Amino acid sequence: KFYEPHVAAFGSMNSGGKIPLGLKRKGLRIVVTGGAGFVGSHLVDRLIERGDSVIVVDNFFTGRKENVMHHFKNPRFELIRHDVVEPLLLEVDQIYHLACPASPVHYKHNPVKTIKTNVVGTLNMLGLAKRVGARFLLTSTSEVYGDPLQHPQVETYWATSIQSLVNKLVQVSSAKAVRLTCARHEACVVKGLSVFVSSHGGVGGGGRLGMSLLTLDPIQDTRVKEPRNWRVINRPVHIFNFGQSKRVTGARGVRSCYDEGKRTAETLTMDYHRGAGVEVRIARIFNTYGPRMCIDDGRVVSNFVAQALRKEPLTVYGDGKQTRSFQYVSDLVEGLMRLMEGEHVGPFNLGNPGEFTMLELAQVVQETIDPNARIEFRPNTEDDPHKRKPDITKAKDLLGWEPKVSLRKGLPLMVSDFRQRIFGDHKEDST
Ligand code: NAD
Ligand code: UDP
Ligand code: UDP
Question: Does the interface predicted TM-score (ipTM) exceed 0.90?
Answer without folding.
Answer: yes
